[in-house]
Amino acid sequence: MRRLAIVGASGHGKVVADCAEVCGWDEVVFFDDAWPARAALAHWSVEGNAEVLLSRLDEFQGVVVAIGNNAIRRDKCMLLVQAGASLVNIVHPSATISRYAQMGNGTVVFAGAVVNMDAQLGMGCIVNTGACIDHDCLLGDFVHVSPNAALAGGVTVGDLSWIGMGAVARPLVHIGREALIGAGAAVVSDVPENATVVGVPAKPI
To answer: Which one of 40, 102, 103, 161 is at 20 to 30 Å from 117 when CA atoms are compared?
Structure first.
């Protein structure tokens, strides 16, 4: 039996768990720092917090962190890696992933998403429902590309950045580390580190 531990019992966690079951994981168990007050999430049990999981890693064939906040997801992933956890990727069967694309450990790709050839995704990324990562894109670690966002060819996205729902980026644009791209924004020029941009065309706020 293949058992998966998921850190983060939230709405995002439910989608990851559902995706994992479609991918063939036999049992999904949640761990969340709100335990024991939070003992269940929809169809799944919450059996402890992150510290409890660290003491039970040998019970699971894989672990994934299902926390939308990029910085918190990074911290939990680093804690697990240091403890020797096996971070796995969860890729929905309806996603299209080029055989020439590369994805770091702990990455989740949801239904209908596309990751085209020679794209490179770092550790712990989220490619959400219907998102498109075109050829030669380079995503850093712990990037979140929201539902229906689209990155054209050769876009670079720095670590811990967030691409909002329905946002688009033109070819070859560079988005700096920890940037936030607002929902529906059209990124037509480079975005500096730690910037928040919104609108069409996207401008800093």
So the answer is: 161
| Predicted pLDDT at 43 | 94
Q: Identify whether the C-beta of residue 146 lies closer than 8 Å to the C-beta of residue 168.
A: no
Q: What is the pLDDT of residues 132-170, one digit of tens each?
A: 999 999 999 999 999 999 999 999 999 999 999 999 999
Single-letter amino acid, residue 155:
V
- CA–CA distance from 55 to each of 25, 51, 61, 125 (Å)? 21, 7, 14, 25
Structure tokens at 42: 């929809």
Helix/strand/coil percent split, the chain, to 5: 15, 30, 55
Q: Which candidate, 99, 134, 93, places its Cα nearest to that of 115? A: 134
Q: Using CA of residue 76, residue 82, residue 84, residue 87, what is the dihedral sign?
A: positive
**Catalytic residue list:** 135
Q: Which residue has the tokens 């890729």?
A: 91
Model pTM score: 0.95
Which of 172, 153, 150, 85 lies closest to 124, judged by CA? 85
